[in-house]
Amino acid sequence: MATTMAQMTKDELREMIETVVEQKLLEVLDDPDEGLPIKRSVRDRLLRQKQAVAAGERGEPLEEVIRQLGLE
What we know:
single chain, mainly alpha, 3 helices
């Protein structure tokens, strides 16, 4: 039996909307490459970048980005 929106409580309607929004966000933001193998060259490059960021060789401090964007 189908329930109309008029028959739903406020909480039931909120739950339905939350469920639909969550499903759509997962569809849009889901990683289509998840679970696929990654090339060794790409993995190595990502690890080098991660190490460079950790060593302060790459990237900019958040405070500097905030200042540059005028978000202070």
